[in-house]
């Protein structure tokens, strides 16, 4: 299907913005003894009340005035589709100056109220060219959204190392390249924010997702390094560094992932695509959540975002990381964990289909030719 037909016009903003019931999520989803939603993490809401008081209303200590983002410069990587595009639409509609990036911007219609510029964040010269262009055009960046990414799914023992390396290069090293190029363009006082798209995979490691999980864990370390460095040097910073950790989102990432066993993917692709279409969060909702983070005067630094009905399975599993030894984290027979067992069963069943060793006689990546085989991605990574 045509990208514009699927995602809607660039100027589209979710019609239910700021309207709807409060999220049906409470602290009761945390097992006894777990306090991650009370202390370490927050929930990135995309419906119900705003986290702050909008213009025209009287702010309070409990609900201070929203940040006015009109005229502020936002840079969003990976904005041709999905989360990046939905966020750009929403922020531009709120009056922000938005520059989104794409490896191939010429493939997409130019949006009417924000810019879509070229960036391949696996290439140093491309990152530098974008930074120079933004500096020459706007002089600074108020909000840096590290969102671009890719996905590779395959079993750990047999998957193509170059595919795995390219995933990490895009999702982590690429984000770090952009970070290094644009932090010098951010204000040294007043409003300034870095937001990155991590994942619930930064708190777990689902079967078949190793390189994706590695890259998302690394992004969380990057955020933590920002704060540990300033603390070690006893230096304050005006730049808030925030991570969102989505569960499944219905974006092109789920449809264009490189699969370690394409022969088997042909057998299960309808189930995979159907799962993303029916069970994943809509990207417009994530765009609304990003807007709310942007206007929140004091956002939580780490925020989960997923469908309300998914918290009941995801949060207990993540709580295990902080309350149980590793060998019990994924064990289905631990008391009080039927939903976790069901989730693991679903994940393991789905991704066992991509085990080349089990289904292809041990032949790496099932002997597939490009783009699934050994040569894909070598322009960025090189031979190993």
Would you write up a description of this structure?
There is one protein chain. With 384 residues, the chain is α/β, with parallel strands linked by helices. It has one domain (33-381): Rossmann fold, CATH 3.40.50. Helices cover 40% and strands 12% of the residues. It has 13 helices and twelve strands. It has an eight-stranded parallel β-sheet, with helices on both faces. Strands 6-10 form a two-stranded parallel sheet. A two-stranded parallel sheet has the order 9-11. Helix 3 runs parallel beside helix 4 (161-182) and helix 4 (161-182) packs parallel to helix 5. The longest helix has 23 residues, at 210-232. The radius of gyration is 21 Å and the shape is globular. It starts with a helix and ends with a helix. Mean pLDDT is 80; it is low at 1-8, 10-22 and 352-384.
Write the layout of secondary structure elements.
Blueprint: H1 3-7, E1 42-43, E2 73-76, H2 82-93, E3 97-102, E4 115-118, H3 124-138, E5 143-146, E6 152-153, H4 161-182, E7 192-197, H5 210-232, E8 239-246, E9 249-250, H6 252-256, E10 258-259, H7 262-279, E11 281-282, H8 283-295, E12 302-305, H9 311-323, H10 326-329, H11 338-352, H12 356-359, H13 378-381
Parallel strand pairs: 1-12, 2-3, 2-5, 3-4, 5-7, 6-10, 7-8, 8-12, 9-11
**Helix-strand pattern, N to C?**
HEEHEEHEEHEHEEHEHEHEHHHHH
The profile of the biggest β sheet is: 8 strands, parallel
Widest sheet, order of strands: 1-12-8-7-5-2-3-4
Strand content: 5-15%
- The number of helical runs is 13
Quickly name the level 1 CATH class.
Alpha Beta
Q: What name does the CATH topology carry? A: Rossmann fold
- Rg computed from alpha carbons, rounded to a whole number of angstroms: 21 Å
Number of strands: 12
Helicity range: 25-40%
Q: In one word, what is the shape?
A: globular
SSE class: alpha/beta
Instruction: Count structural domains.
Output: 1
Measured between the Cα atoms of the first and last residue, the distance is: 36 Å
- Overall pLDDT metric: 80
Q: Uncertain spans, ≥5 residues at pLDDT below 50?
A: 1-8, 10-22, 352-384
CATH architecture call: 3-Layer(aba) Sandwich
CATH homologous superfamily placement: NAD(P)-binding Rossmann-like Domain
